[in-house]
Amino acid sequence: MSDLLETREVQSLLTKVSGLGNDKGDARVKRIVHRIVLDLFKTIEEFDVQPDEFWSAMSYLTELGQANEVGLLVPGLGLETFLDHRTDEAERKAGVEGGTPRTIEGPLYIAGAPLSKGEARLDDGSEKGEVLFMNGQVRDVNGKPVAGAVVDVWHANPLGGYSFFDPSQPRYNLRRRIETDAEGRYRFRTVLPAGYACPPEGPTQKLLDQLGRHGRRPAHIHFFVSAPAYRKLTTQINIDGDEYLHDDFAFATRDGLISEVRRSTDPAEVRTRGLNAPFAEITFDFVLHRERANAPNTVVTRAHAEAA
Ligand code: MBD
Ligand code: FE
Fold first, then answer.
1. How many CB atoms lie within 10 A of CB 95?
2. Whole-angstrom Cα distance, residue 154 to residue 174?
3. 256-276 pLDDT, tens digit each
4. Which of 14, 41, 70, 200 has the fewest CB atoms in 10 Å of its CB?
């Protein structure tokens, strides 16, 4: 590579920068910082990055943090999906196979949604959209129902916005925790979500533009499914037929997570549900693994806001 990087001055600079020359601090952090800064030096050298370009990148990072879009760029760059691939691989090595596939959490979860038993309604009636009934069963890999599992569900409204982040929506709108009944079943009524689009004027979309990419996600519904003695599942279902189903800027679509929507137009059925317009219905079962030694941790510590 470059001669400059091989010089004693630059090598010594890196050693000092990362604290590898002192006996305090954290050894792992030092080695990681050394690697990252070295890789940045290499990138600057290899692409002959000019000071103007460098400082524009630093402004970009500042803007990304100020716009609270770090969590949006991370899946956009495939980093969150890469973490999933690593967890999948570690699970395969531990013999954890089958069950409902995991996929990324994304940046829009809010902790502390209302908890109810068996069923819930996620909207308050003010959403103008198609009514969706979703139901299913939580089972283990042997087909045994898991009673008392918590299905923590969150999704966008018919305009693609998430409550809390979109302050025009009611508190915990389209966010609930539902405990499965004795047969491991859950069901909820909500409104069909629309796909998501990155804020068009935000820093994430700004970079995506430079990569010639869009910032769109297909319509989807997020879930954490957990139960005592079971491995926590973080996943989403993607709604079939969406034009971005296999072109998700966040790379979260996986086989086994695409769910068909049944449309009910039969007037009698519509009336039975107390509605006056056709509705949508999805059935989706979740299959969990029992917790076991030597398998990677699936309870990930991550900063989550809670609605005030
Ligand atoms: C979303 O709704 C989402 O789930 C992800 C991963 C990124 C942006 C918006
Ligand atoms: Fe989402």
1. 10
2. 6
3. 999 999 999 999 999 999 999
4. 200
